[in-house]
Structure to design on (797 residues):
């Protein structure tokens, strides 16, 4: 990949954004090292177990951030926390015991453990009670899981769609429950949406960008603006023309095949919310494919996952995606096909 | 072949063997998604009844996926011992179930039986088994396999140490590795799922794990779970790999969507035999899981239990060191909740053992499925009782790379102690030498990763 180009685009976009509040977090986030940048991409189906077409699986890292490894309520809105407090306050009128924040801090850990923990967000150095986990370790794990469960799904706000200047289409899925149990419906556009795309979208685009909430609307809310901006900038610098971007409510990854067929797109970049993990519920993936058409095999899709402020910074990701698209267009292949052609 | 039955005054008709096989399954969201599941609970039981009266030969003689169209079918067919098949071909599936469960039938008999059955026959009998049947029957079988060390002995429970890291950071991987070792995890394999599937990165992780294993003289084996072609390139470039990993499926089309074929696996076998660092004879690690064929739109109208069984038929052709069903990973559209995951875990383990495979399970769940840690703890107890060869373990069960939850280091130690089981003998001797185990269980020092500091 072109390191210089990525940093130049990132720089450009950051300048454009000027004093936009959202850029301040990137100063706090260490830019990945050369080595880490190479790890940004993988093939969708080659990670063990990740061969399930519709599973948006992503690693999450927070080691580059200075924040504590495990945050409480990391995926919850402030009014959620508010309601906890108000409930607590009600209770306090019945008891005179002061209400305090539950403390998950572990006991003193050895220097060895402290040093080891610096290298990984994994739950290591946690000690044991007999062969079992300690109570606080267990509760923290359960709380993080609870937060991830509560963060699954969600809707992207109208406001964001306006900001992005994109229109919305739907799949054949009608509700959340159907979304998780009927991936086939999430891989097909509703009839009205097909007609809408026919009338509104540019045909035969070099690059078609599409966006969907997938399993985490908050991933889109948090990251899509920056990724989209940087990707547009990157593609424009590379003189690669973009089609008409739109947003899909409750889309699956393989929906890109039907869209590719309908619009005859050469490359599709699909930005989609990942299944929430215990460490982050705001992680987004970008799936990229050369000429996705009905029947495209998973091995031909590529994914840049783990896009969030603690993982791959959104601006960097957007700039990087531009260079991936350039390479795909050059070799006229993606995924396993691209590897074969690259030799 | 009789495909109808009158049951409680009601007539049930099934239109094909494929239909009976699908409808006889316990409830699975994946079969419903495929539109092939039983429409009522009574219809399900009727299908089981019809199936119970079919003969073993009915199933072999009416292939669900004809050999002409599918190399998985050809491989399964080619591996059947005709002599043994001849002994059982006129049995009903009911008789087959009762033979498997009979007190006269033990390890030796089941291993012999295994050679005479194709994957569809094994799937058929599975549909007639209750959960406890599956536990009890699987536990009769002892399947040993050897890469650098031998695992699978009765009374043992081995584990894969899975020290994944979100950026494949070597220090991070080693940190989790030390933690796991300090709980006595990792006799089956030290296996890392890489974020980065590039040859360079895979080589780096293979070298780091192998160096650590050598430095501490650990009687185990390493593996990096990249695509088979990437591992082959890494090995050709001199990287130390004790075995080769690959995800497999139950139809040729699904395998093709994974970018693999039987020829490719044979080629890998030649390579790892010549240039791998593992002793063998078992040098493959395969992963499977119900629903993957449907997910790849390559299920051909067949139910997910039968397709999963075909994975094992394909796998056994290559004499793997370990086979692992990643049972709760695929998502609620294939296995909806705890009940379906538990059933699938028991089915997969049993079917693998009936194929004579060294069967392990990644007992796990994702955050959008209706299950939690308590549910997989339940399944781990059932599978340990069933004599599962190995299970997967990550720090506190939280895989920070793949974003799902599996069993923890604590859980493996707990299962061993609760059931009075042990890690594999060679590994146990090493754990005792390191002071991690004492008197057959965790020592006072266990769980402290500073054991691995010099």
């Amino acid at each position: 990949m072109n390191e210089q180009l990525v940093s130049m685009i990132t720089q450009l976009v950051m300048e454009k954004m000027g004093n936009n509040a959202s850029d301040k977090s990137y100063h706090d986030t260490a830019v990945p090292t050369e080595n880490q940048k190479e790890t940004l991409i993988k093939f969708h189906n080659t990670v063990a177990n990740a061969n399930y077409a519709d599973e948006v699986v992503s690693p999450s890292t927070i080691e580059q951030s200075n924040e504590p490894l495990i945050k409480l309520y990391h995926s919850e809105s402030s009014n959620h926390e508010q309601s906890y407090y108000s409930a607590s306050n009600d209770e306090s009128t019945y008891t005179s015991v002061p209400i305090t924040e539950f403390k998950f801090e572990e006991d003193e850990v050895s220097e060895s453990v402290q040093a080891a923990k610096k290298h990984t967000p994994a739950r290591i150095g946690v000690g044991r009670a007999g062969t079992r986990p300690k109570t606080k370790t267990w509760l923290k794990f359960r709380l993080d899981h609870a937060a991830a469960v509560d963060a699954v799904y969600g809707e992207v706000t109208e406001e964001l769609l306006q900001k992005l200047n994109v229109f919305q289409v739907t799949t054949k899925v009608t509700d959340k429950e159907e979304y998780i149990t009927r991936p086939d419906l999430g891989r097909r556009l509703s009839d009205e949406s097909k007609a809408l795309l026919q009338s509104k979208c540019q045909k035969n685009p070099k690059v078609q960008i599409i966006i969907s909430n997938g399993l985490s609307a908050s991933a889109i809310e948090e990251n899509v603006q920056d990724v989209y901006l940087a990707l547009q900038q990157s593609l424009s610098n590379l003189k690669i023309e973009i089609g008409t971007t739109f947003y899909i409510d409750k889309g699956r990854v393989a929906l890109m095949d039907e869209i590719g067929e309908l619009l005859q797109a050469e490359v599709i970049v699909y930005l989609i919310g990942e299944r929430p993990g215990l460490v982050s519920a705001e992680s987004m993936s970008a799936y990229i494919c050369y000429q996705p058409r009905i029947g495209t095999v998973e091995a031909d899709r590529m994914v840049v996952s783990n896009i969030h402020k603690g993982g791959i910074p959104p601006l960097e990701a957007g700039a990087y995606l531009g260079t991936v698209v350039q390479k795909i267009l050059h070799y006229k292949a993606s995924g396993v096909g691209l590897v074969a052609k690259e030799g | 072949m009789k495909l109808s039955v009158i049951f409680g005054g009601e007539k049930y008709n099934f239109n094909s063997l494929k239909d009976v096989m699908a409808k006889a399954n316990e409830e699975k969201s994946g079969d419903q998604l495929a539109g092939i599941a039983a429409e009522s609970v009574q219809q399900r039981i009727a299908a089981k009844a019809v199936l119970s009266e079919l003969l073993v030969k009915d199933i072999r003689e009416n292939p669900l996926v004809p050999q002409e169209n599918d190399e998985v079918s050809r491989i399964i067919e080619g591996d059947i011992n005709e002599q043994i098949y001849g002994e059982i071909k006129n049995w009903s599936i009911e008789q087959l179930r009762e033979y498997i469960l009979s007190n006269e039938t033990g390890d030796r008999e089941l291993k012999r039986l295994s050679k005479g059955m194709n994957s569809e026959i094994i799937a058929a009998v599975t549909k007639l088994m209750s959960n406890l049947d599956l536990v009890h029957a699987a536990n009769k079988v002892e399947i040993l396999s050897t890469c650098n060390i031998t695992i699978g002995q009765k009374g043992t429970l081995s584990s894969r140490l899975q020290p994944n890291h979100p950026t494949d950071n070597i220090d991070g991987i080693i940190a989790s590795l030390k933690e796991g070792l300090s709980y006595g995890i990792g006799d089956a394999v030290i296996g890392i799922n890489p974020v980065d599937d590039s040859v360079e990165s895979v080589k780096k992780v293979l070298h780091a794990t192998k160096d650590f294993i050598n430095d501490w003289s650990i009687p185990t084996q390493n593996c990096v779970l990249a695509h088979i072609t990437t591992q082959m390139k890494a090995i050709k470039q001199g990287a130390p790999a004790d075995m080769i990993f690959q995800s497999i499926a139950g139809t040729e089309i699904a395998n093709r969507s994974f970018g693999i074929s039987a020829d490719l696996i044979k080629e890998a076998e030649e390579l790892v035999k010549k240039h791998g660092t593992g002793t063998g004879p078992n040098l493959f690690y395969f992963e499977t899981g119900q629903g993957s064929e449907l997910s790849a739109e390559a299920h051909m109208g067949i139910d997910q239990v039968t397709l999963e069984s075909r994975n094992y038929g394909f796998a056994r052709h290559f004499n793997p060191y370990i086979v692992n069903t990643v049972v709760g990973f695929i998502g609620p559209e294939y296995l909806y909740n705890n009940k379906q995951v538990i059933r699938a875990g028991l089915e997969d383990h049993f079917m693998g053992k009936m194929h004579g495979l060294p069967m392990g399970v990644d007992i796990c769940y994702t955050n959008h499925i209706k299950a939690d840690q308590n549910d997989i703890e339940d399944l781990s107890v059932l599978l340990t009782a069933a004599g599962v060869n190995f299970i997967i373990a990550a720090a506190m069960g939280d895989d920070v790379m793949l974003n799902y939850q599996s069993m923890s280091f604590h859980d493996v130690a707990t299962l061993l102690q609760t059931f009075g089981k042990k890690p594999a003998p060679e590994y146990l001797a090493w754990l005792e030498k390191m002071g991690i185990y004492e008197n057959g269980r965790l020592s006072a020092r266990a769980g402290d990763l500073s054991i691995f500091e010099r």
Notes: The CA atoms of residues 290 and 332 of chain A lie 7 Å apart. The longest strand of chain A covers residues 267-273.
